[in-house]
Specification:
The protein has 1 helix and 2 strands. The protein is mostly loops. The chain has a two-stranded antiparallel sheet. The protein is globular, with a radius of gyration of 11 Å. It binds iron/sulfur cluster.
C-alpha cells in the first residue's frame, strides 16, 4: 500500500492544513462531517482506512483526514 502522508513533514500537507484526524483540526475552513472519505478527490474504497488522493501523488491519506482542498463528493 502507499505510504501515508506525514502532516508534519509533507510540504503540501502543511500548506493545505492536512490532518489525519479531521475531528482534531481547528481550521475554520473545516465543516463538520467533512473527511477525506467523502471528498471528491479521495480514491480509496468505502471500507478502506486510507487511500490515494490526487493532491498527493504516490501517497495515501487517512479516510478520517481532511485538508483545505476538500470538495464534497457529489
Ligand atoms: Fe483529503 Fe480531499 Fe484533502 Fe485529499 S483533497 S487530503 S481527500 S480532504
Amino acid at each position: 500500500s502507499l505510504p501515508l502522508v506525514d502532516p508534519a513533514k509533507d510540504p503540501t500537507a502543511k500548506a493545505l492544513g492536512y490532518v489525519a484526524n479531521a475531528a482534531a483540526t481547528k481550521d475554520p475552513a473545516h465543516k463538520a462531517g467533512a473527511v477525506c472519505s467523502n471528498c471528491a478527490l479521495y480514491q480509496g474504497k468505502a471500507s478502506d482506512k486510507q487511500g490515494p488522493c490526487s493532491i498527493f501523488p504516490g501517497k495515501a491519506v487517512a479516510a478520517a483526514g481532511w485538508c483545505k482542498s476538500y470538495i464534497k463528493k457529489a
